[in-house]
Design goal:
- The structure is a homohexamer.
- Chain A is about 30% helix and about 30% strand.
- Chain A is α+β, with helices and mostly antiparallel strands and about 140 residues long.
- The first copy, chain A, has a single domain, classed as 2-Layer Sandwich (Tetrahydropterin Synthase, Chain A).
- Strand 5 of chain C pairs antiparallel with strand 1 of chain D, so a sheet runs across the interface.
């Protein structure tokens, strides 16, 4: 079993808040991440898959294929976008890094499992000091 | 003459556009940076000052003082904010990295020149692949 | 289950040695890390916790709370300090990265387990080429 | 149980191809990695071992010993070399990062297991966007 | 005057040697960089241009245009290539980082000077420990 | 004219203080950097030289020679040492990054100027957020 990881990046705006709460209540719970006029990040996304090597060609999968899937299903939908407004699969969700990771897993898993591998981990850096990992359960 | 550099970071939303232009025209000129619902970045800011060493204490200036000035005059005003809406000294300007650098210079120079040094360079990374430097002229 | 990681940094002096050994014996076992007049590092600390998402707010825990705990219990006690002399919870221990990781685990676990999560991993970089991970057992 | 990781680096040329295939077929499967005149990388290698702390000296093993083993068994054989031609233990293998990781594991495991620890993971970065991990099974 | 920098990357094989010298003589002068079967690098290229801001749009130039020029004139010709054999503008030259920097300058300057800016610096990292800068004279 | 830069690293302890001042006065001026029991850093040193290319071999100088000089004259004397006590050329000086940079310049310049180049810049990172540059005047 080999684990392969591909890094992709995207730049997006977002805001953490509950619509049913006042700005004051949102500020109390989410801090400056609830600024009503949005803020943003250079997100770094690490997608890890695992599988057996195809002995003929020495690959589990071609990382270019993995990159292509991640770009089509995720990056094109979130890069230079507002995660709360512009991204169909995030609508109605709090755009915490936790929820982003789970949503990306749900988008990627069906396509990745058609390849010779399994999705293993979604890792997201929101800043150089904070990251989230999700392993699908 | 010694050059000292302090790195600070901020996370902000912005959009590149001219109000007088249509979304199509803005898209043509500014590309995906003109997305109407904003996007954002983890900006990295490097402030470089230059001066003579105070021979008694071996410092040009205490970098903590420089950091304090940069945080008060810049970081507190831009971190977790929308650069187009929330930042008084950016109002009415296109929030390109070029203009951000010049505006930061204008905010910082008067305060930094009260110290035993001169502002030398404002350097801003918008992504790991792009940065801007401004030397005040 | 989601894993969250927070990075913190501290700058400290230390020395690897056994008081009962001669300088020569210490040099033989610990190499230049046993220099009698100390040396030091910019340590990087990664604290990983795991837990379930609070579905209401989309968080496992607020990473600001985690950061606050790590700063109060660890960083304030080790930053700009001598790990062999100044840090109560390291006294009498060899200040290897292994022992630092275990000691940090012991300091952090009781407080972190009061939150909606469990301590999962302490990871410490001593240099860009060396790091240690401890998972509590 | 403590996990220790040592980073080493090497610069090497390689090419992905099957001798039995035409250049066209190799290009179709391996893309530009099959360029007949080679290309190359600054590879980063992370070797992770695990073991119990020796309570007397606070170490699992001295990371200098681990570094020495990795340099003698791996780095001296691959650094500034052609992985397809110059490296005895890669001969006849496709020089994918997957196969490099498995081959390094096979070279290192017998020597590392003579120390007070077990080989846990071989991690190889081929570029800043791609890495492979192998855990020995 | 504003300075803009764009980072691009390429992976290439090369060898330092003089055809008229024996392998022994080449080894003496160029060290392991003269290995007859090539070695390679993940090169990082930083292209810096300088110019006045277009006040209407807040840009000196669109960094996407700069990136496009660098990719077309440089990256497509050197990425996943052998710098000694595959790159027309390097033929007959020693492929030192110095010569690479000068050659890239000569390829880029005419195209960049058609934009609203001037080429200022070519910076090339061969490894994380070595880089070269060339300012055109 | 080409500029070449070599990165080297060292880990050292130090303390900022004036012997003639009380601990309180030192704390007031130097902050936590004056902790009486020392602290330390992973210093990063960038040495930049400039010169003309030797057209025969495509080098200004062999960066291995530069690295050898820097290691012999600087790194061996400061690595895993106490900068205030163990380093002859720092004795009696405040071990600020400013003074370290100037002292390194004085140690390196005579030897580097015997090569086919001139010393151009000493750059020292004390932490990831602070660095000093000195150009010899």
């Amino acid at each position: 079993m080999i684990y392969l990881t591909r890094r992709e990046r995207f730049n997006a705006a977002h805001r953490l808040f509950l619509q049913e709460w006042s700005d004051e209540k949102n500020l109390e719970v989410f801090g400056k991440c609830s600024n009503p006029n949005w803020h943003g990040h250079n997100y770094e996304l690490f997608v890890t898959v695992k599988g057996e090597i195809n002995p003929k060609i020495g690959f589990v999968i071609n990382l270019k294929h993995l990159s292509k899937i991640v770009r089509e299903l995720i990056i094109e939908k979130v890069d230079h976008k507002n995660l709360n407004i512009d991204v169909p699969f995030m609508l109605g969700k709090i755009t915490s890094a936790e929820n982003i990771a789970i949503s990306f897993w749900e988008e990627l898993e069906p396509e990745i499992n058609k390849l010779n591998c399994e999705l293993h981990c979604i890792k997201i850096f929101e800043t150089e000091n904070n990251y989230i990992e999700y392993f699908g359960k």
